[in-house]
């Protein structure tokens, strides 16, 4: 029981840190991470619901795709956990955005600084979620399902969909906003940095664990 509580505690901490990373990227205004780029772009077009709720809708679509692909192989308990955590993530994203609402980022240098900080925070948050090892968020679970069905490597599927997300977000912004506000250089920076930040966290963690107490 203690191990379960520790694992879920770590995962939820990672979830909150990752949500803060997404909120920082939104505040920077240079584009968000590929996974969040489509709901963020839609939130710029339609303000009837918040960015976090668009994330929730996006997560439901990803979960539905996973269920359709896996069919009988789909585990109901995993789907329930994914759905709950997805909505928690959406809420935490809105909460994180509200914490930053009074911060004004005006110069390009400040925008770039916030974008870099968001990559570090998001990368650390994702790494802590992996450390908790209790569940996958819908986007990653959908990629895993596609990899299982097609026989392709998970990493290649993730790269493909990250590119597709950015392209879709760019089209949405271009058609309905008139500019690439939701997808800019920050999206490319995030795509390059976040994976490397997670790798650095893994290396540092392994080195610390090997050190004698």
Approximate shape: globular
For the secondary structure, the number of strands is 0
Residue fraction in strands: under 5%
Protein structure class? mainly alpha
Structure explained in plain terms:
By secondary structure, the protein is mostly helical. The chain has one domain. 80% of the residues lie in helices and 0% in strands. It contains 8 helices and no strands. It has helices spanning 2-28, 34-45, 51-70, 76-99, 108-132, 138-150, 154-176, 185-210. Helix 1 (2-28) crosses helix 4, helix 2 (34-45) packs across helix 3 (51-70) and helix 2 runs parallel beside helix 7 (154-176). The chain is globular, with a radius of gyration of 17 Å. The mean pLDDT is 88.
Key phrases:
mainly alpha, 0% strand, 213 residues
């Amino acid at each position: 029981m203690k191990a379960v509580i520790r694992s879920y505690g770590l995962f939820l901490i990672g979830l909150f840190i990752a949500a803060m990373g997404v909120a920082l990227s939104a505040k920077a205004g240079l584009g968000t991470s590929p996974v969040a780029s489509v709901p963020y772009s839609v939130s710029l077009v339609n303000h009837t619901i918040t960015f976090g709720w668009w994330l929730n809708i996006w997560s439901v679509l990803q979960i539905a795709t996973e269920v359709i692909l896996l069919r009988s192989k789909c585990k109901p308990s995993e789907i329930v956990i994914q759905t709950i955590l997805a909505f928690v993530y959406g809420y935490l994203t809105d909460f994180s955005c509200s914490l930053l609402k009074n911060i004004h980022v005006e110069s390009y240098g400040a925008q770039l600084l916030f974008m870099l900080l968001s990559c570090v925070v998001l990368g650390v948050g994702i790494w802590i979620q992996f450390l908790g090892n209790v569940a996958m968020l819908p986007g990653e679970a959908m990629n895993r399902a596609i990899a299982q069905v097609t026989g392709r490597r998970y990493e290649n599927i993730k790269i493909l969909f990250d590119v597709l997300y950015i392209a879709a977000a760019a089209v949405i912004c271009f058609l309905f906003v008139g500019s690439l506000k939701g997808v800019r250089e920050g999206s490319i920076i995030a795509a390059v940095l976040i994976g490397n930040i997670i790798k650095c966290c893994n290396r540092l963690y392994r080195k610390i664990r090997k050190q004698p107490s």
